[in-house]
Amino acid sequence: MRNVLVVISGPSGVGKGTLVRSLLAEDDRLVESVSCTTRAPRAGEVDGRDYFFITQEEFRDRIAANDFLEYDEHFGNFYGTPRSFVERQLKNMSVVLEIDVVGALNAKRLMPRSAVLIMVAPPSLEELQKRLLRRGSEGEEQFRERLQRVKYELEQAPLYDYVVVNDDLQRAKREIQEIIRKEKEKEI
Prior knowledge:
alpha/beta; 5-stranded parallel sheet; 4-stranded mixed sheet; 7 helices; globular
């Protein structure tokens, strides 16, 4: 049986984080990828568990060495998925990576034999809008921008290997577990 890189994406509010935590809690043969960042650690964060905290110079050196499956800059800090970490983990177990669609497609491009892309989708756009409104964490303009992003992300679903509708958390988790099982059994 082979190990796979399980790349999970989907719009904000769809339940990706909850699904990932549940998958990891139930399967000790899965490990979550740890990203690198150039920002300072927050209270309680541990290097190597929450992030690999590195300098801007080291991050740029790793970009030049092609050691990121994907990376981005937000508010002056870099964030990225270290390819070397993922490849090391894949020798012993499957890796779960929760990233946006651009990063997911780049991971698939760089690791086409290992990466399995799973889009987590809402039961409907209306249901997702309700979930986001219940959060109450954004102003009207931010909410409109987020909805545009949601539409863009869902339009990328045909580029994914699988789409799992999260209308019921336990059912969606079982579906992802079955996808992982099938993918691990595939001969490449």
